[in-house]
Structure formats: C-alpha cells, structure tokens
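Can't attach files on this board, so I'm pasting raw text. These are the components:
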Amino acid sequence: MKLEDAVAVETRPLRTVKTHSSTRQFAIIGTGLVLLTAGLVMSTALGAVTIGLNEVLAALFGEAERVPRQIVWNLRVPRALVGALVGMNLAVAGALLQGIMRNPMAAPTIVGVTAGAGLAAAAVIILLPGVAALLPPIAFLGALAASVFVYVLSWQPGIGTSPVRMVLAGVAVTTMLGAFTTGLMTVFSDRIQSVVLWMAGNLVGTSWNHLELIWFYSVIGVVGGLLLVRQLNVMQLGDETAQSLGVRVERARFLAMGLAALLAASAVSVAGLVGFVGLIVPHVMRLLGGHNHGYLVPASAVGGAALIVWADLGARMVLAPLELPVGVVTALIGGPFFVFLLYRARFVGGRNL
Amino acid sequence: MPAAEAEIRVEGITAAYAESPVLEGVDIHIAAGEMVGIVGRNGSGKSTLLKVMGRLIKPRRGAVYLNGTDISSLPTQRVAQCMAVMPQAPASPQQLTVRELIGYGRYPHIPWLQRFGIRDREVIQETMQSCRLEDFADRQLSTLSGGERQKAWIALALAQQPRVMLLDEPVTFLDLGHQLEVMDLIAELNHMHGITVVIVLHDLNLAARYCSRLIALQSGSVYADGPTEDVIQEDVLREVFGIDARIGFDPLTHKPVCFPYRLDATV
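---
Top answer:
Structure tokens for the assembled complex are below.
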C-alpha cells in the first residue's frame, strides 16, 4: 500500500485526462455531415455562373430552364458528388493504413497506390494520347498493381508481413515508380502539360460516368472498413498482443490493405493524385475525437468528403475563371489547420499523436 | 474468477526465424497450476519458446498440446480464450486508458460485431480490483509509471480469464520495489486463480524466489529442468551463464540465492 501511495503522489499532479466521450464523437461526425451538406449545396449554386438556390432546386426536380439545368445537373452535381467520394475514399484509406501499420506517416502515397496510378496515367496520357476514356481504368489498375507489389515485397516466407517491412517496401516501390514517371516525362517533355495537371489532382470535367466508376468501390471500402473496426483497435496493441487476443493479424492486415488499395485507387483514378487528404484527415479526426476506429473510420469518411467538396469549391472560385487543382487547395486549407491542431495538442499537453 | 486448470505439453519443438534453428528438440511438460520460470542467456531461445507455446510462432517441427489438444489445430480465438501471452516490452498506444486497455482482454470472448455485455464490464471491474488498479482506471497509459503500466498489461491478460499466462520478462525494466509488487501480483494470480504461469525472467534470484520450478535453456535446448533448488547450482550456472557463482539461502524465504562473482575462468 505504501509503495502505491508513494507512486500516486509522484504521478497524481497530472490531471486525469478525460477520454473522448461518444457524445463528442457523434457531435464531430454530425458537424462534418452539416459541413458536407452545406458544401454540396454551395457547389451546385456557385461557379462561373451563380445560380440561385430556387433555381438549383428547380433544376434538381427538372423544372428549370435548359441552361441552368444543364449546368447544375450535368456539371456541378456530379462534380460535387465525385469530389465527396474521392475525399471519403482517400481519408478512409489513410485511416485503415495508419491503423494496420501503426505508423503516423502511413497514407495511400506510402503503399505505392499513388505512384502506381501516376505512372500508369502518365503512360496513357503520353503514349496513347486521345484515348482519355482509358485513363481512369488504367490508372486504377496501375494503383492496384503497385499495392500488390508492395504487399508481396513485404512478405517473408514463414513469418508474414510486418508494418515496418510494408512501409519500407512502399517507399522503395514509390521511389522506383516515381523515377519511371519522371523518366517518361523527361523523354516526352513536349507532351507533359496534361500529365502535370493530372498529377496535381483535379476534378475538372468530372461527370456521372466517373461517379459510376467509383461508387461501388467506395461502398465496399467503407463498409469493409467498418467491419474491421474491432480488429484495427486491438491491433494497436502490437501484432503479438493482438494475436494472443484472438485476432488473425495477418488476415486482418491483408483485408485492410486490400480495402485501402481499392479505395485509394478508385479515388486517384478519377481525380488524379490528390495528396494529403489520406494522410491528414485521419490525424485531424484522431486529434479531435480519439483513436477508436469505430469513430475514426466514419469520421474520416465524412471529414475527407467535406474537405474535398469545400476545397474544390475554393479551387473553382478563388481565381475564377481560372481553376486551381483541387489538390493544391486541400493542402492549403488542411495544412495550416493541422499545424494548428498539433500545436494546440502540444500546449494543452494531453494527447500525443 | 474461477479458472479451470490447464496443462501444457511441448513435444520435440524445433523453431527457426531464418536458417539456423533457435530451438532444437525441446520437450517440456508443465502441469496445471504450476508457476515455472524460464532462464538462460540472451539469445538462448527463451522468448521464442514462449511464443511457440503461445501459438504466436509456428514451429518447424513438433507440437504444443494444451490439455491434450494440439494448439495448431485450434482457432486463434479459441486459443485466446485459454491462453494469454504478454510480450516483452509491449507497444502501448499512448492515449489508451487503463480501463480501455483491460477492456481489450474481453475481445476473445465477445462474438463478432457485438458489444461489451454486463458480464464483460463485471470482469473488467474485478480485474482492476485484483490488480489494484481502480485508482488508475481512467488514466492514460502514457501518464503511468513503469510499474503501473506493467500491472495494466498483466490486467489485460487477466481479463482474458485465461487458464495459462505466458509472460516474457514482465519486470526487467522496473525498479526493485515494483519488481516485487508485480511478481507478488503474478504469484497471487497463480495461487488464487489457479492460473498456470510460465514466465521468462532474467533475474535468477527473482526466479528462485517465486518459481517452484525452473527451466534453463542453453543454445535452444533444455539444459536443466527441475525444482528450483536443483537448477540454481554452481555447475548449472557455470554451464548456462558462463559465470562462477556461490549459492546461499535467503534467511527469510529459505530460497536459494546466487552470488555471481566473476566470469567463468575456464571459458
């Protein structure tokens, strides 16, 4: 007893840290949903031509004149929805990857998904100009191939994968594929205009076709991610502890990696290399509401979607009629906000990343 | 928290990470309710043996039987319901609270996609009482001292309601007071709950004090296996640790104590 008392005196001055209540977590997700909805509505109203909300509603219900209806229904609505799905997919992919790798730097960029899509897209744009319709499916396949490659490289016979090997293999593959892309762009330097645009990540010209291409993977990825919540939580205790608690670690890691690859590959296939969302959104959500994946996965989904929708709105409006790549704007909005949260967490002195 | 008894039989285990075997032809029988210490030099295969027993590593040859059943034939979750493994220096997510950590111990008992039941909450509460952690329930692991944190990890294992606990150096990085506190707790779980304990220890005197039986490993094989007094012997220590030591007896506990005084001159 005495010993315990002594220890208690030594450590008690630290205030007891409140855990993130589920009320708070619901509030965060709810706020995200409100922001997302507001962003979606604004996206349909604002742009090169401002369309009043009445007209937007009229257009959605098929009663408006031809031109505003065209703009709302064929341009802005699909663009906003695709943006939301892209943001959701990237952020959930990031949350899954950070979960299985227990590494704060884990993101779709690290498991080769981005580099694979980048090389495939550069090859299509440069070598097969004029077949733009092939771009999304080929970028998608490139992304998946790269992540399979990373998984295989990180596999050791008899032992399996490990988070560290996965990160290292991912970095190696990313660097290698990036070198190929750079090589390709140097050799065909006269044709790289649209490659550069694609690499920066943008939603220009997205249509209902793009939505059809990715909604299925979004559903699979997010539902699958939610089903893995418990495994992801237990895996935070380390592979060995998780396994001794009954988690089939290798299988869970394989599934989560597969889902993350599908999510990220589908996102970059339609929007190009929108970076940053997959890395930062899960971190922001963790700082706001805690580390439980039952909260983190849906919160990242909503947060990622809201971020991209608002960022794309900004990308269209700020320098109108010129459009910025959405990837640039996500970094400009998300970066400072993230730094602010990090510093606040440091001064409040509670939560570590 | 009653726990049925469990015995473990390790038969002809050979295990390896790469080419050269870490364990070779290891046979051990651990009876239900025993508290057995595993000692040996760094790299002698202690941790590997524990991991093989806990089904964290597949052996190249041989098998581990839990109450007569080959554990490699059991589902991971089923094994987790009987056996808790506490790895060496486990990685703890900083933000986790003690209560949350212990809650994970219920994982093997909760069916997929279900939440904690009343029984699970009771077990968590009882576990915190047994490990004297109630005052720390809502503290984050990162704010605890080393000793409290180790107790929290042992509580995680206890919340599994295991019949066997496999512990890898649970006290190595603790000060003397906390070493005794944690070892007392483990011994109590062994006595009161009838949990079979296999524990890897570096400190021979701690091992001698708490374990009635010791297994000394040398280069992946069992060199000595028997009652503590038979294993803490000058010739065994010379062979297993390469040290010259005198053996005395603790006047209070009457357990053997070793006084190492130099590296073995003949090696």
